[in-house]
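Q: Please design a sequence for this.
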């Protein structure tokens, strides 16, 4: 038999579909600590919508820590679906749902499987806003305003400027490299995100400083 077939006999098939990224390997634990501290770990059947799930690595790390929360991954790139499904299949607590396709630049009612309004307790988005056009950030806050329940929270993670100041120099260099690759990309300023939040009935509730000069932001729908 081929090497692939021999390996598939030794290891579970789904493990080969899993993809991982070094950055997610590094930041999964700090993200988990920040998120777990801000969610209800007791009430059953809570719902979390992840936007731009990528490989599914974050859902795979977070879901076993929060067995009372169902994680709904979404992704624009269908090529990631097999990896997300693999993380879901390997999740010991079985609380990661099958991935859904979502174009965050479109209103949620126009998504392939439109979610019900006011149906999620939490949303989570990691490392998307700075490597996507501004329209994606607009769509993210629109979705949060539409889909979060009253009292719900959206958590976002990544590098951010604050009131026009981006620090340290490594983040300045990173921002310049992003804009060189694609002029529509770039590290976003929290003051601009607060405007998007206000436009969609949200408010910035908390900023947690994270390793590697990143931040974990909590947006409340009061």
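A: Design:
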């Amino acid at each position: 038999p081929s090497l692939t077939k021999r390996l598939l006999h030794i290891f579970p098939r789904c493990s080969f579909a899993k993809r991982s990224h070094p950055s997610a390997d590094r930041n999964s634990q700090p993200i988990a600590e920040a998120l777990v501290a801000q969610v209800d770990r007791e009430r059953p059947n809570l719902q979390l919508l992840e936007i731009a799930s990528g490989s599914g690595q974050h859902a795979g790390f977070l879901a076993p820590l929060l067995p009372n929360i169902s994680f709904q991954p979404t992704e624009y790139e269908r090529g990631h679906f097999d990896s997300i499904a693999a993380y879901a299949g390997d999740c010991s607590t079985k609380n990661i749902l099958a991935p859904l396709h979502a174009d965050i630049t479109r209103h949620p009612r126009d998504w392939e499987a439109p979610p019900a309004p006011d149906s999620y307790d939490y949303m989570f988005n990691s490392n998307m806003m700075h490597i996507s056009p501004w329209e994606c950030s607009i769509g993210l806050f629109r979705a949060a305003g539409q889909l979060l329940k009253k009292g719900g929270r959206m958590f976002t993670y990544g590098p951010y400027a604050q009131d026009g100041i981006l620090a340290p120099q490594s983040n300045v260099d990173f921002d310049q490299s992003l804009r060189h690759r694609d002029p529509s990309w770039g590290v976003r300023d929290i003051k601009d995100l607060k405007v998007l939040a206000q436009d969609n009935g949200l408010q910035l509730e908390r900023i947690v400083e994270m390793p590697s000069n990143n931040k974990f932001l909590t947006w409340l729908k009061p």
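Q: Thanks. Anything notable?
A: The first strand starts at residue 46 and ends at 51. The radius of gyration is 18 Å.
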